[in-house]
Amino acid sequence: MKIKSFAAEIFAGISNRNYQFDDGLNILLGNNEAGKSTVINAIYASLFVSPQIRLNTTEGKEFKERFFPYPDGDYAEAEVKFEVNNSDYKFYKKWSNNNYRGFLELSDGRRIENPAKITEYKKEIFPYGKSTYNNIVFSSQQDIKSTLKRINAEENPELIDTINSFLRRAVMELDGVSIDQFRSRIENELEALTKKWNLAADAVSNSDRGINNPYKVGSGEIYDCYIAKEKLRRKIKESKINERKFEELSAEIKKLKKEEAELIKKIRELSEIEAEINQRAAVELEAENIEEKIDKISKTAQKWPKFKAEMAKLKEKMNKAEAKLKKLEAEKKRAKKLQRRNEIKERVKQIKAADNKLQKLLKLNDEAKATPTQVEKMEAYKDKITETKASLKAAKLKAKLNFSASEKIRVLTGVEGEKSIAEGEIIEADGYLRIKTDQIDIEIESAEIDFVSLKEEYNLNQKKFEQLKSKMEVESLEQAREKLNKITEIKREIEAKKNKIDELLARDKLKALENELTELEQVEAARDIENLNPEIEDLKAKISELNTEIKIKENRINEWQEEYQSLTELESILAENKERKEELKVKLNELASLPAQYSSSSEFINDLKTKREKREELNQILRDKLEQHQELENLLPTASTREMESELKDLQNKFESLKNKAKNLLEIKKVFERKLEEMDQNSFKPLINSFSRNLQHLTAGKYETGEIDADFSVKLKSKQKQELPGKLELLSYGTYDAAALALRFAIFDNLFSNYGGFIILDDCLVNFDPERRKKAIELIKEYQKKYQIIYTTCDPERAAEFEANVIQI
Asked: CATH homologous superfamily for 683-808?
């Protein structure tokens, strides 16, 4: 496989690019940040990255950040044309979260857009997986060291398996039978037997997919046999249960038929006198109602005049209670006003006390002579004075007057005053020194500072500092801060007192409260509300009870008047009902007598109704039982239980046989893998030979052989046969890069010698000295005869060292 061209409408920082690639060596030449790495990334993405970028995944977010145009691009687009076995193909990708697209164009011009079909074609086009191409074909020189470190079974199993598989095929064949085919045959047979079955646990792999929820497809012979066996076992169990139910149901049906026949006979006997008993029931009901009316009217005749007298007494009691309640409520109203008077009196007292304290605090605040601004200025002047002194101290002067004809010697140092010194005394000063006698006057200034300016600044700040002290009536900065803190505390207390007064006033005016207090002083005395409330509540309850009793009696008298009009009419109605009662007694004697087992006509009627309902219920149960009987008869299997038990035994034997076969295959596989492991000791020889040959060429024979352990760690041997550690990072940069390039070409050559292909080299000669670079160029030129090489560099001189297709980026 080789790349023929690459085009990108927009991808990361590049746009509207189109490059043609030749066989052999192609050099991408361009300055740093020109887009060389972006072209390589775009080629890789075109071949291996899905066009649908899911922005809610880490992978999708990273792709967008790296390859979507900054700052708000929402897609990237590129295509790669390549040749495989003299046939041309093209991969087109538009990466996006929603509006994505991708297709593979075949040599005959057909376009494949279905992702599953594209994957099938890629398996034919690319002999190895994505990881192999990522770590071997597309790795940059900077990543080669980390790539070698990643080639181990734990971190990159796909790549190491690919290399091992190739090497094993190259050096080990069993009499013409491929080891991989033999392994596949064992594994396929094991899978056909044990799929969905845990042979070690002797159970279904997924406990949730047993007989109650079996797999319909994708299961092995052991699993299928187990399910068939258990289904038959269940069928036998169900058959035995159904047979027992069939017999029990037959007995129940016989019993129900007998019970129904007896019930029909009793219903017929009772039905013969049913009509006259129904008439008797109606007469008895009317007689019962007449008796109830007579009782009710008699009682009403007694209660009516009594209720009238009781109601008059209750109304008199209620009038007295209501008069007393009115007096108590008037007294309670006065008690509330008195309570309000006491509350206002206490509030006014607290408000005036708080206001007196507030006025004192306001006076103290007005008398204060310190503000935050003044303190801040004092601090600033103090800092500047200190800073000036520090600057002067940094320019330290030292002098000694060895001889003077004058007895009076005066000196002025730094910003300090003038003082006398003796002959021979050592003088130290900060930035400025002046020595005066009768004969001389010498000034010495440090060349490192502007003493005059510093002294002026010092004097100015000292003067302002002293002025503020005087104005604030303080002796120091600390005293000024304390004074400011005290003023702040006074202001805080002022605010607290104002809030307290507002809280006590509660939106009222003090004058209004005082006026209300004056009015309340005229209220007459009254008992406390706490003493009045129980008496008032008791009286209200009593009035309510009296009112209820009156209403009850009034309602009852009204009901009697509405029903009977008057006491006279009530007595007339009573006489009529007594006469009707006698007529009904005569009629009952003319009807059929009630059977002895019944105490009343209603009992007879209800019993007959119950028997008929029971008969219907029995009939329905019988029909259901007969239907169940027929269903059970249909469920009974054609084969006997004994025949099914014999079939179950055969399935059990087959089940055990299949498990034994699987166990035997596992033993064969273990022996095979053990033998294969023993044979694997020489599986790296082709790779070692290629690596050693490349390494010797690149290092001009300094390192003659290379060794690769089973865990893929690389060891080198020098010309003096001294073995170096497997950690390549311990070598020099040049040797490390040479070893990495040698091993990469060796792996690539062993993997792709039968397929052809292309490899990306990212300026891999940076750390090579001239001699090794010359050897590396020779090695690259040698490999370009067999493979397509894409070499990236920013150095035109490096590009000129090759005879290649130079692509200017």
From this structure: P-loop containing nucleotide triphosphate hydrolases (3.40.50.300)
